[in-house]
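[Automated response] Your request has been received and processed.

Submitted sequence:
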Amino acid sequence: QVQLVESGGGLVQAGGSLRLSCAASGRTFSSSAMGWFRQAPGKEREFVAAISWNGRTTYATDSVKGRFTISRDNAKTTVWLQMNSLKPEDTAVYYCAATKRSSSSYYAPRGGDEYDYWGQGTQVTVSS
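Generated structure:
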């Protein structure tokens, strides 16, 4: 079992930066792939970024490539999403998610159905 708590959201002007954190508890974090998703009002949840259990593989959706970076520290059981050059269209509730154990260095799924644990979300609002 993994419990996830996101933090770091807030209100920022376009062009600004935020760093989201996801603190995990549970014995399987270090062997779990982690992902960030977001959901804007009236829209479906969408994939943002993912990272394999050891950090060797990362993926990001095209709209955030070059602006957002996902990283993790298994010793601190934390995953981060560094968001730079924020745009109003990045406004959404951001969710952290974890898979069950995976031994593959290449497993960093982009589908929400592949994640087993979810946080409660943190609001990010980007003003123009």
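Summary generated for your ticket: The radius of gyration is 14 Å. The first strand starts at residue 3 and ends at 7.
If you did not submit this request, please reply to this message.
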